Amino acid sequence: TIFNELLGLSDVAKGLHSTEGAGFTLLVPTDEAFSKLPKGTVDRLKKNAVELERVIKSHMVLGSNDVGKLSNFRTAPTATGKDVEVKVQEVDMLIGGGKLIQTDLKASNGYVHVIDKVLTLAKK
Fold first, then answer.
1. In the β-sheet with 110-115, what is the strand arrangement from edge to edge?
2. Degrees (nearest 5) of the Cα angle 53, 55, 58?
3. Closest of 90, 85, 91 to residue 27, by C-alpha
4. Model's pTM, two decimal places?
5. Strand (E) or helix (H) holding 18
6. Residue-wise pLDDT tens digits, 55-64
7. Separation between Cα atoms, residue 79 and residue 62, nearest integer Å
């Protein structure tokens, strides 16, 4: 719910509805994942468009990737231009240190995977 709300506040959402191109893979953090962030982080994101866009884009992997495709990556390119680490451990898949808890939710222009961590990438 929180990620969906943040996505709706960002300009990134407009580009997601396009069915042209290679598609997107969205890594959607659970509300519980957001609750683990420092107090006030979500409210700050709502007020800071640049930081909000960076966080949203860090959860977007370029291309339409089901779990099978993602498992072939060591790192996956995000919409921020930075890569995020992908690890397969026995039955779990970790992306950026967060575990995928629900996978392969098909969307019109790609896939959605639910992750148990908010991926925050250091500013560079």
1. 60-62, 24-29, 110-115, 98-107, 92-95, 83-89, 75-77
2. 105
3. 85
4. 0.88
5. none
6. 999 999 988 9
7. 6
